[in-house]
Amino acid sequence: MFQPILLLWKSETAFSYHEIGEEAAEEEIFVVKPYDVVVVGGGPAGLNAAIAAGRKDKKVLLIERYGFLGGMSTIAGVYPWMTFHTESGEQVIKGIAEEIVQRLMARGASPGHLRDTCGFVYSVTPYDPEVYKVLAVEMLKEAGVDLLVHSFVDTVTAVDGEIQEIEITSKSGRQKVRGKIFIDATGDADVAFLAGAPTIMGREGDQKTQPMTMKFRMRGVDLAKVKEQILKNPDNFYPKTPIAELRDLPLTAVQGFYKEWEEAGLPINRDQVLFFTGPAEDEVLVNMTRVQDLDATKVDDLTKAEYEGRKQVLMVADFLKKRIPGFERASISSTAAQIGIRESRRIVGEYILTQDDVINGRKFEEAIAKSGYPIDIHAPSGKGMQIAWVEGDGSFDIPYGCLVPKKVNNCLSPAAVCRRPTKRSRPRG
C-alpha cells in the first residue's frame, strides 16, 4: 500500500516538499573504509584502547555518541579520578592513564594525585574536564586514530559468532563500519549485546541495578570554612577522615555533615553530604542525588531519571546553601550533560571476577589491569551501601578473560561482571 512520506529540504529561498512511495524511501547507507580495530565509546576505556592500538600501527576508528570524549568523566561529571593507589599508597595504575595525568599537569589542568581527605581511598586525582576533552582528541591524532563523534551504533551484523560490521546513525545518515576487532566501550555492552553475546542486568533475583546520580558543580564555596567545620566536629564526618593531617593537606573530598543531612529530611535516599573540590579554588563537584528503581537501558526510564535527577539537584543545592557553612554564597555553576550511570547491562565474560578475587587481592598470569579500589555498591532501593575492601597487598588483577564475551569471537568489552560483596561499611561515592 502506498504511504506518502513528507520530505522537507531547504533551498536558497524557501522550503519545499515532495511525496515519495515506500519503495523509494530506503536510506542510502555509506560504507566507511575497513579498520583493524573499531572502538565504540570514547570514555577512559575506549580512549585508552584506541590510543594503544594506534600506537601499534593498527588502523583504528573511535566512535562516540556525544560531541566530545571522556565518557562519564566529562558527560556525567564523574570527578575526581580515584584511586591510582592502594590503601597503603602504592601506585598500581600507570600506563596511558598516568600519561594523561602527567600531560594534564604540564598544562596546569591537574595537580596530580592528592590525598583523599575523607580517607575512603588513598588518593584522588582532580582534573579540568575541558582541557581533558581537548587532550583526548590530540592524543588520538598523535596515535593516528580516526574519530567520529555524534555517531550512535544501533545495528550489529554477526555471523557464526563473528561481527562483520556495525551501523551508525548520525547527521550524515547511516553508515556501515567494518573491522577485524571491535572494542565495546559503550559502558552498556551495546555492541556485544547486539552481536548476540549473553549479558546480565543488576543483582541476582530481581535484576535491579545501582541508582543513577545527577552530578553538579557549585562555585563560590568557602573551602577554608568547610575545613574548619571538619576540624571542630570530627565525629560528624567519615571515620577515616585524616583529621590529624587535615590542616596541612589541601582539601580534596568531604564526606559527612551527617547531623545536618539527617535534620533536613530531604526525600533522597542518601545519608550524608559528599562533595569533591576543584578544579577552581572555590569550586566543588557534588555527588548526592540518588535516582533508584530505573533501568538505564530503557529510554522511558532514562527520561524519568533525567528529570528526577535535576529536580534533586535543586533540592540539594538549596540545602547546602542554607545548612552547610561555607556554602552561603555558593550557586550552581553547571549540571552534567546526562545523568551518571553506575550499572546497566554487563557481558558474561569467559572469566567472571568474584568478590573473593577482589577481597583477597588475587593475581592472574593473564592480567591486563590492576586496581586498588574497593568494591563499592549502592543499594538499588532504600539507603545504604555494600563495600568490600581489598586485602593482601591492597591491589587485585583483572584478567583478560573478563573482557571476552561468550559466543562472540572478535569483540572485547570492559563491561564485565563482578559478583556482589557481603562486607558492609559506611556509604561512599
Layout of strands and helices, then pairs:
Elements: E1 5-10, E2 15-20, E3 29-40, H1 44-55, E4 60-63, H2 72-75, H3 95-106, E5 114-115, E6 123-124, H4 129-142, E7 146-148, E8 152-159, E9 162-170, E10 173-184, H5 190-194, E11 199-201, E12 216-219, H6 223-232, H7 243-246, E13 253-256, H8 258-264, E14 273-277, E15 284-286, H9 299-323, E16 331-335, E17 345-347, H10 355-359, E18 367-371, E19 375-378, E20 385-388, E21 396-399, E22 411-412
Parallel strand pairs: 3-4, 3-10, 4-7, 10-22
Antiparallel strand pairs: 1-2, 5-6, 8-9, 9-10, 11-17, 12-15, 12-16, 13-14, 14-15, 18-21, 19-20
Helix pairs in contact: 1-4
Keywords: 4Fe-4S, Iron, Iron-sulfur, Metal-binding, Oxidoreductase
Protein name: FAD dependent oxidoreductase
InterPro entries: FAD/NAD-bd_sf, HdrA-like
- What's the tally of helices? 10
Strand content: 25-35%
Number of strands: 22
Q: Whole-number average pLDDT?
A: 91
Structural class: alpha+beta
Amount of helix: 10-25%
Sheet of most strands: 7 strands, mixed
- Backbone CA Rg: 23 Å
**Low-pLDDT residue spans:** 1-25, 419-428
Distance between the termini: 56 Å
The geometry reads as globular
